[in-house]
Design brief:
With 294 residues, this protein is α+β, with helices and mostly antiparallel strands. It is 37% helix and 33% strand. Strands 1, 2, 3, 4, 5, 6, 7, 8 and 9 form a 9-stranded antiparallel sheet that branches. α3 packs parallel to α5 and α4 runs antiparallel to α5. The protein is elongated and about 100 Å long.
């Protein structure tokens, strides 16, 4: 079995940074101490050595629902909460999903499910590597907390789902569980994204102004042309990194400044480079003609 990518290593140090107040974690070895349900099994990294992975597999084409975690009397004190973790899946037929049933003391039961088309609530289909997921719920302010939470894996047909790093967290009214899950494995957060975008934009603007002044006066030809070529290379690299961030599911604050700064840095110098070269050639020709005239 493949080990998860480096993103799983961020679990221990990112809860505060991404506005997530973790109440409890659920290692699968302890959760399944009394035995795993049918269709589920602890993953191992050697004979008799379990580690924090739970594999749910449906070998048949018939639908299968497996209850992987039941939390009695969860220690929730705020209205907004979620069960979150990491998931990967292989050869899943149809649209599988994770669901959380919220059972309240008055007998009411409501559920959340990963049925979205993108983000931490995206459904499970085909094969995909590790990514964060979240099952959020918003209760009424001042209402009693749930008496029980039940987490299920729902497979409409064949496929394998692996879960890791499950935790129960709660959030203040101004905090978004979906955004917190998305930024948990982000390269940086919204504030840093603003700094990076502003820094790149300012740097590109300063270099552009310097190049414009020098080119307009016909000075420092080698520097100007080299700077423009370097800007194009840098821009292509930033844009490619931004596209990779989109493909990896990174949030807006990560990919947008890369794509924007990269696009501007690559397109504008590429458009202006022939004109700048022509400007230097014209000035050089004028100097030669003036020298000949003397």
């Amino acid at each position: 079995m493949r080990k998860p990518t480096v993103v799983l290593c961020l679990v221990a140090c990112s809860s505060v940074a991404f506005a997530e107040h973790v109440l409890r974690t659920y290692p699968w070895e302890k959760v399944m101490a009394g035995g795993a349900p049918k269709g589920a099994q602890l993953a191992t990294d050697g004979p008799g050595r379990a580690y924090d992975r739970l594999k749910v597999e449906n070998p048949a084409s018939e639908p299968l629902t497996v209850t992987v975690l039941t939390i009695h009397a969860p220690p929730i004190t705020w209205a907004r909460y979620a069960v979150a973790g990491f998931v990967r899946h292989e050869r899943v037929e149809g649209k599988a999903y994770l669901e959380m049933w919220n059972h309240f003391p008055n007998g009411g039961a409501y559920f959340s499910a990963t049925l979205a088309e993108a983000g931490p609530m995206r459904h499970l289909e085909g094969t995909a590597d590790w990514r964060p997921f979240t099952l959020p719920f918003s209760n009424e302010e001042g209402a009693p907390p749930p008496a029980k939470l039940v987490i299920n894996v729902v497979l409409p047909g064949r496929g394998t789902v692996v879960l890791s790093g499950l935790r129960l967290a709660q959030y203040r009214p101004d905090e978004d569980p979906v955004e917190a899950a998305a930024y948990r494995t982000a390269w940086w957060g919204e504030r840093m994204g603003g700094f990076i975008g502003g820094g790149l934009g300012g740097f590109i603007g300063l270099v552009g102004a310097l190049v414009g002044v020098l080119a307009g006066r016909g000075k420092a030809r080698r520097f100007v042309l080299a700077a423009m070529a370097a800007a194009i290379v840098l821009g292509v690299g930033l844009a490619a990194l931004g596209v990779a961030a989109v493909a990896m599911g990174q949030p807006y604050a990560v990919y947008y400044p890369l794509v924007l700064a990269g696009g501007l840095s690559a397109v504008i110098p590429a458009f202006m480079l022939p004109r700048v070269r022509k400007r230097y050639e014209e000035l050089e020709l004028r100097r030669i003609q003036a020298a000949d005239a003397r």
